[in-house]
Write a structure and sequence with these properties.
Blueprint lengths: L5 E13 L23 E13 L2 E5 L7 H5 L4 H4 L13 H7 L9 E3 L20 E5 H7 L20 E4 L3 E4 L2 E5 L8 E7 L3 E5 L7 H4 L12 H18 L2 E3 L4 H4 L12
Parallel strand pairs: 3-4, 4-5, 5-6, 10-11
Antiparallel strand pairs: 1-2, 2-3, 7-8, 8-9, 9-10
The structure holds zinc ion.
Zinc ion (ZN) binds next to loops.
């Protein structure tokens, strides 16, 4: 029996982008020649973090985009390709504001787990460099980013996480009872997904960028432009599908605008 826990989905910033970055799908964004002059398909690319209130502590999954995205991303060009939508009323929408709405500060988080170290997931990790929060990501991701020279490589910006004391997770692992990470590499060296086994609502899998969108999941799975290793990516999607079929888990995708409209967001909504 899974322990009592509450899972809160937190807003952590919404980008806009050409959806070709996320989905190489005929009919959706790849146009035939009669439409060659048609406008590119831009859409919203929401991010989320997940806060788990667990008897053994508060666990946070991912950190979203940074408030200073314009300056931080300017050297990479991401500010032109993935601009963050203007924050809504009261400058909410970013992770710090979502935590405040829960009457929490970064010091209240016992464990931060980063699905991977991309610019729209690990950007606020340094908010948790407080001597209290244990920060974890996959060992494969730590090994991968160690070779980055310069300001950025792909969608990794080492300034987001450089100098943090991060523990490396090897293999699939239970963080606390009922909360596990699943190694799902391919999007990056060490992208992980999160599985929570809720006592009332059953298992849920937060895929992060292992699966961007419901349309990416298929079947068949449909790839994207930002992928480190396409074959590993496909293996990971099928690994998740097998776990879903065995457990009946609900899938929550990393950047799906339509699905995000259906989620129960904090501070009012939660899953238990
Ligand atoms: Zn990513």
């Amino acid at each position: 029996m899974a322990p009592e826990m509450k899972v809160h989905v937190l807003e952590s910033g919404t980008m806009e982008a050409d959806l070709t970055w996320l989905l190489l799908a005929p009919g959706r964004v790849i146009k035939p020649r009669v439409e060659k002059d048609a406008p590119r398909a831009w859409g919203k690319v929401p991010t989320h973090a997940v806060l788990i209130d667990h008897p053994e502590g508060r666990i946070l999954w991912d950190t979203g985009v940074p408030r200073d995205w314009q300056t931080r991303w300017e050297p990479t060009g991401f500010d032109q390709f993935f601009p963050v939508l203007d924050a809504t009323e009261g400058d909410s929408g970013y992770l710090d504001a979502s935590l405040r709405q829960m009457e929490l500060t970064p010091d209240d988080i016992d464990i931060l787990v980063l699905s991977h170290l991309h610019f729209d997931h690990a950007a606020n990790a340094k908010m948790f460099d407080n001597g209290k929060t244990k920060i974890m990501t996959s060992q494969a991701e730590l090994d991968g980013v160690a070779s980055i020279a310069g300001y950025s490589q792909g969608a990794h910006i080492p300034d987001d996480f450089k100098g943090l004391d991060m523990a490396g997770i090897k293999g699939d692992d239970e963080i606390v009872p009922g909360v596990s990470v699943i190694q799902t590499p391919g999007h990056t060296w060490g992208t992980m997904s999160l599985k929570v086994d809720l006592p009332n609502e059953g298992p849920k899998i937060f895929t992060s960028d292992a699966v961007y969108l419901e349309d990416s999941y298929g079947p068949p799975a449909i790839g994207a432009a930002i992928v480190w290793n396409n074959l590993a990516w496909l293996d990971s999607v099928e690994k998740l599908r097998k776990i879903q079929q065995e457990t009946g888990a609900e899938m929550i995708f990393g950047h799906d605008e339509e699905q995000a409209k259906t989620l129960k967001f904090a501070p009012d909504g939660f899953y238990s």
